[in-house]
Design a protein that fits this description.
Chains A, B: It catalyses: Hydrolysis of terminal non-reducing N-acetyl-D-hexosamine residues in N-acetyl-beta-D-hexosaminides. Chains A, B: Belongs to the glycosyl hydrolase 20 family. Chains A, B: One of its GO terms (biological process) is glycosaminoglycan metabolic process. The structure is a homodimer of 580-residue chains. Chain A is of the alpha/beta class and 580 residues long. In chain A, 34% of the residues lie in helices and 17% in strands. Chain A is built from 22 helices and 19 strands. Chain A has a nine-stranded mixed β-sheet with strand order 1-2-9-5-6-4-3-8-7. An eight-stranded parallel β-sheet of chain A has the order 12-11-10-19-18-17-16-15. Chain A has a two-stranded antiparallel sheet with strand order 13-14. The two termini of chain A are 31 Å apart.
Chain lengths: 580, 580
């Protein structure tokens, strides 16, 4: 540990039990000291490079703004009053020098949308106590951006002084997994662009790098697609409840400038009733009743995929959407397809009879066509693991049977396909065994909407289908590599929290999402923690004060993160533990 | 049914299955027609009385504002487009004439704070189709105010026209129960006055008439009490996180002007650690650890009630608080008292030894003193049914044992005492058998905070103690008279939803409360509904479209009520039912 003032995070915890360096996610390597350093009133961040990208310059400006406006008092009794004496004698930090290891740094936006596995988010940050410059280094713009995010979390306010406790601070940091996402469903209920942007900001603060946008579903089709304007005109909830092509460009660039790749999802062939509003010819069991016989939730409606013209329509639609999103990833969904709809559709049966194909073979052709079109555009297809759920309504709950379907049925998926496992974390092993890359999205760990009761009408005593509520602790203690061999483990790309919007809208977007979604952000950046203390000192107990900290910081930046505990507890780390 | 255009609510449902007259709570008697009437641009509400109270005039102004600003489209596909033709030929309503059956109406505020059982909230409202004046009549200002609230819910907007469908409308209405409340805990986390006022507004829109203010607890003491300023100075979370005496006056009058009585609670002798910050001499087991041995949640701390000076302090404090609140009701709490704290307190043991009293006898004396002081000031004491929980930590979950304690132990309560039953709805019968008046506040039906996971630190796999989430359907189907004799039934004053704030703050106040808390508001106004269709056509199924309606109306008035379903379902009453 060299310098006597340095102590590792873990040791610091054992010694002082303070919420030291309340960073979220926790860096891979962190050493802290026992001094503090005050931000000089003329403090500035200097990009020490020729031709610095405009979006990096903007990120610097935002960082400077956060530093001067966060006004976050330390979450300790007295809110920093115990630092008052040290603040008086502390040195002033005047500058953070940011330098890049490559001569011509690319834009942050471009790097944010690179192939997932080629992105470089590593950075090295040093904040001395002696008034000499702080330094941030990386070999990528993306790395520099992550470092700026970390830097802004080091500072607190007391009596109008901005300062960083526990200096000198040395950080070397990189993500454990390349994909840390957040999914929002904007189809069950609509969210204005401003809500999405606020969410993107909050995501970037915890280094989430993928916005999985479940933009359409059976209930509404709120995205304008060039060449397919009738879909939103007739399928959106209203003329003002649409993401225009300009809105989409705005969201994509806003996200990219914050290190976030927008992965759009057009769920097919199920979850497509809204397409039937303008294209009834492509939709089977359109609004069929009783809906329980035809869909997992109302309204029913699925693409008539055996029909060639529907295949052509779908590939054209997906291609048009794909051109709106620069991301290399594109989700075609594929969950909750009900055979009843096809068994009862005369046209489908006729086609199958005449071609001699089974329904599965037909779905396989459809999938190859749609995925093929996307791959031609340079996209990697993403699907839910329930891809070939050729079962009845029960499939959603009978995960064992479903796994068999995923694995044994004949829907051919390219090896390149990325699979999001949602039905159950128990399905990860089987999907990985098939050699697919996996994004963790299990409803039993990462669904933000669970536990709010049944939303289907006239079912007064039912609870949420995925009851209980998934606490941040539950998500945080998820093991991404459970039951996997070493080879299979390499297929894990990361994971995400998800907000399905049957019972959500802009009114509870912040409160249902934050700070809970930060749990997966740290899990997939810093690596798994579990309940035992890890090498870097993490577990649910040491995480809580830091999670409070990022929640309060979010609050001060305008995101309405909820209280995890009484303020009395938040100000007294550990004191409200079960064992305290 | 006389006039052929009239049809009862129930019949209308059977015939048309529309979300007719989306009132919340549903009036006791309602007949609707099949016309509609348009609000004239010069529409006004005329108080046809001499010396109309100022606060009634203000309520009229607010009603006029709501009528012109709600801009609520009907929750049907097309948002009112199907009314367009009828709007064109409809008559114009120019005036609502409001008249009172008494010569000198009292102020709304005074009537709102009358003795619970003497309040008169009855009104008669008539909205004709033919352009003749609408009329509102009552024998009380409070009744007129309830009628104005109903009137404002009759109107919708389409294409900038404000109109009421289903006229003519005849309403005769009164509450089934005199007490419909909402409880907010402002001690675990603090809520600014503006949040409380917004909540009071929303409460008044659904005719809730009691704000049960759990203002202090062990975590903080955020209310300034004249003569006891040290309590908030040292016990509040911070100097800006305090309700000043002026704030309290503001809240009390704001509530009263909206027909709401503010029932304050100073929980004693448990839940009082915050008093120990300034008066350690009155608090036993102050912040004792491990807290699980001394309290149901951290921090521990209870009043040393065997001590005469503590009794004097408490009666003085309660009297001082009582003078700040004009309500006739005052809650002294009484829940979750832990004997460990007294068994381990040398001073208490010494006093008990010297007086020969048991701890229970001593608690009984304390209760008689504090309640006696309140009764002298004209207050009716309110307690939680866990009054004499002389058990260990288990008492919170072992309701049977607790019931025995309530009933068999010797803490003497005046017959006049009102008991709020919180631990379990199963305890209502036993409390009523003892002859106490009851307010339903059962955690198994009315706790808004249940189901959000465990908030205690380092307990990663625990769910909320009162899991699962209490859905609006669950609350709505509560039977207030279950297991009660006819005589016991007369002791039921009403009930309320409650928001405990361990995991709540201003950020989720609206989203966790609305529209759920409207479920008890209707239950205790319109009477129980259950799952079967009642005489007035109510059940969870017919309630849902109306609940959507009031939620959207709240939204348009600035209260962030959440979405109960996808908008697709909200616009199609019944179509997302389980059986649709």
């Amino acid at each position: 540990m060299g310098h006597p003032k340095f102590t590792t995070w873990f040791a610091a915890l054992l010694v002082a039990c303070t919420p030291a360096a309340a960073l979220w996610p926790l860096p891979q390597s962190l050493t802290t000291g026992s001094d503090l350093v005050v931000l000089a009133t003329n403090f500035n961040i200097k990009l020490s490079m020729d031709n610095s990208p405009k979006d990096l310059q903007d990120a610097v400006s935002r960082t400077e703004h956060y530093l001067s406006h966060d006004n976050l008092g330390r979450l300790l009794v007295g809110r920093g009053s115990s630092d008052a004496a040290a603040i008086k004698t502390a040195k002033q930090l005047s500058i953070l020098i940011v330098s890049c290891g490559v001569d011509t740094p690319r834009s942050l936006s471009d790097e944010a949308m690179d192939d997932l596995e080629s992105r470089d988010e590593k950075y090295i940050l040093s904040v001395p106590s002696d008034g000499t410059p702080a330094t941030l280094r990386a070999n990528s713009t993306l790395g520099l951006f992550r470092g700026l995010t970390t830097f802004s979390q080091l500072f607190y306010e007391y009596d109008r002084v901005i300062y960083a406790p526990e200096t000198p601070i040395e950080i070397e940091d990189w993500p454990t997994y390349p994909y840390r996402g957040f999914m929002l469903d904007t189809a069950r209920n609509y969210y204005p662009v401003s809500d999405i942007k606020r969410t993107l900001d909050a995501m970037s603060w915890v280094k989430i790098n993928a916005f999985h946008w479940h933009v359409v579903d059976s209930q509404s089709f709120p995205i304008e697609v060039p060449g397919f304007m009738e879909l939103s005109q007739q399928g959106a909830y209203g003329p003002n409840l649409v993401y225009t092509t300009s809105d989409v460009r705005d969201i994509v660039s806003y996200a990219a400038e914050r290190g976030i790749d927008v992965v759009v999802e057009i769920d097919t062939p199920g979850h497509t009733a809204a397409i039937g509003e303008s294209h009834p010819e492509h939709v089977v069991c359109f609004h069929a009743t009783p809906w329980v016989n035809w869909a997992n939730e109302p309204p029913a409606g699925q693409l008539r995929f055996a029909n060639e013209s529907t295949v052509f329509f779908t590939t054209s639609l997906l291609s048009a959407v794909a051109k709106m999103f620069p991301s290399k990833l594109f989700s075609t969904g594929g969950d909750e397809v009900h055979t009843n709809c096809y068994n009862a559709d005369a046209q489908t049966q006729e086609i199958l009879n005449s071609t001699g194909q089974t329904l599965e073979q037909s779905l396989s052709s459809f999938t190859q066509s749609t995925h093929g079109a996307l791959e031609k555009l340079g996209k990697t297809p993403v699907v839910w693991e329930g891809r070939s759920c050729f079962l009845d309504f029960q499939c959603i709950s009978s995960t064992e049977t479903l796994s068999e379907m995923v694995l044994e049925h004949n829907v051919t998926l390219s090896n390149n396909t990325v699979v999001m496992v949602w039905i159950s974390s128990q399905n990860v092993e089987a999907v990985a065994q098939k050699g697919f890359r996996v994004i963790h999205a299990a409803s039993d760990y990462f669904y933000l909407d669970c536990g709010a009761g049944e939303w289907i009408g006239n079912d007064p005593f039912a609870n949420s289908w995925c009851d209980p509520f998934k606490t941040w602790q539950k998500s945080y203690t998820f093991d991404p590599l459970a039951n996997l061999t070493e080879a299979e483990s390499k297929l894990i790309l990361g994971g995400q929290h998800m907000l399905w919007s049957e019972q959500s809208s802009p009114h509870n977007l912040d409160s249902i999402t934050w700070p809970r979604a930060a749990a997966s952000a740290e899990l997939f950046w810093s690596g798994p923690a579990g309940t035992e203390t890890t090498a870097n000192g993490r577990n649910v107990d040491t995480a809580l004060p830091r999670l409070h900290d990022i929640a309060f910081r979010m609050t001060n930046r305008g995101v309405a993160a909820i209280a995890l505990q009484p303020l009395w507890c938040a100000l007294r780390p550990g004191v409200c533990d079960l064992t305290a």
